[in-house]
Write a structure and sequence with these properties.
single chain
Amino acid sequence: MVVARRHPEWLKVKMPEGPNYLELRALLRQSGLHTVCEEAHCPNIGECWERRSATFMILGDLCTWRCHYCAVKTGRPLGLDLDEPERLAQAVERLNLRYCVITSVTRDDLPDGGAGLFAQCIVKVRERAPSCQVEVLIPDLTGRRDGLKTVLDAGPAVLNHNIETAERIFKQVRPKGDYRRSLELLRRAAEIAPHIPTKSGMMVGLGEETEEVLQTMRDLRSVGVRLLTVGQYLRPSPVHAPMQRHYHPDEFAALREEGMRMGFRHVASGPLVRSSYHAEEQAMAAGGAVALDIGPRGRV
């Protein structure tokens, strides 16, 4: 299949330039913090940062995995920044956030996969900004139940772990991952802390069939996932996995409707939807069956 080279109109975004964007960028530089918005080349960075919304990325900027769709740098990390939770909490306090998302690179070199630092970040944010809720988007922790429990015991508002793609092509694009292990992590999270909503996300356009997308959604529901994001895969560079096709906004709308029929509490589905985009609205919906129609840019 020929890879599409030109993006359709619904995938075009403005260059980031607003005052809030510039202020937030300066604050993050001063704090020595990383964001997945920058590291993963997120197309929504201008809009989100202008809304004073960012997804913090902890545990450094070098990932021990090399997923073929991801722009985050791969390498051998050196040590652990134990001051990172305090700096992150200070940034959340200065930004006066009501809701923040914390994710990380994968750190298979750490005995707990970084679970302890996730927990510390949640605790520190709660100390400095008691009214701010924290969503965590975690790696699979190589299946460690104790690591997962450490994160959940810290009390995040939402536990997110992305399945990313359909089972048939999972190993092609995520060679160090395991589709069934990811499902088991989400099942265990719902078992350990049933009061904490679980969430997952996937990309489309990597070569999967529509029925495989629907089967992935059914698999996520079968392990108790309540919140779902579905977005278009965009190739970060020529060395990454090729994009096989663009999904039309109408196809994303159809996936949202199917997801709601399956029993998800909220489905954010759109070409530019990403796992932490408008995360607060999704968390609010976890308490009731609410469906929001997400347009081409993922706007509610």
